[in-house]
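Subject: Predicted fold for NADPH2:quinone reductase, 327 residues

User T.R. writes:
Posting the sequence so we have a shared reference for the thread.
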Amino acid sequence: MRTQAIRIQAHGGPEVLEQVEVEVGDPGPGEVRIRQSAIGLNFADIYQRRGSHGPHAVTAFPVVLGAQGAGTIDAIGPEVEAGLHVGQSVAYFHPGAYQAVRNIPAHRVVPLPAGVSEEVAGATLLRGLTAEYLLRRLYPVAPGEAVLVHAAAGGMGVILSQWARALGATVIGTVGSEAKMAIARAHGCHHVIDYRREDFVARTLECTGGQGVSVVYDAVGKDVFLPSLDCLKPLGMAINYGTASGDVEAFDLQRLHAKSLSVSRPTLRTFIATAADLRRGAAALFDAVLGGQVTLEVGHRYPLAEARRAHEELESRATTGAAVLIP
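User M.O. replies:
I've generated the structure tokens; pasting them so everyone works from the same file.
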């Protein structure tokens, strides 16, 4: 069958995105075919389009962007494990998402429980899985700890803040405008700092009685990384998982010495590399959603054909919350 896709023939700006028709055959061994209803839109897609910030597999052009989506299984290939069936609502994490119908390895597919819609899963799976490993595996947050979440009103920030609060943490969030302060407060932050008007290091220390936080969750990168080290208590960890303001450049390792600090630069793919890890992470996320600890929301919807506009608006910081492409 023929289906719509968005792909690139070279790295560059939003203008390199082109809408094409591609052929999709029957699913092969170990594959399922999914008719998508929602395709996730993430800043990682922009990095991939530009040709910067791994880890993206080296692939010959043309490349179909994206890595997450949701929809309904409409065909199953041979040798697929039990538990997946035609008509089932599923989400997945696998490269090549900007396509209306596609074949996907069955081990990258996650069945959706009742109460989690395809649209929500398609828009937020990457962020939800990222929050799961950040809060529960890389640095397991314990009740009574204080955490600092940068970009607390963004798509990742609102999930991290809600979940950290549900785990019993005191959540301090930074944002870049007055309007975003209300969003951060409504999504789990006990304290919100407008970093454009306030010194976020001084305010973080003030909020923690001078002690500092146990962990910093940083999706901003260059502009906030080094000051964030001053927000940490002894034995604290700074986790840089995104670089919206640019890459973190080399720094003096001795900055970590006095308080025995740790720094991490993780990526989701390594935490969900196996089918078992992917399913466990998704199960923990869905449990948190169904239990009311985390609310997943879709803030913006774009037709798949308008992927260029979607990239432009995401790149210009015109969006808040999660965005989704609708085939």
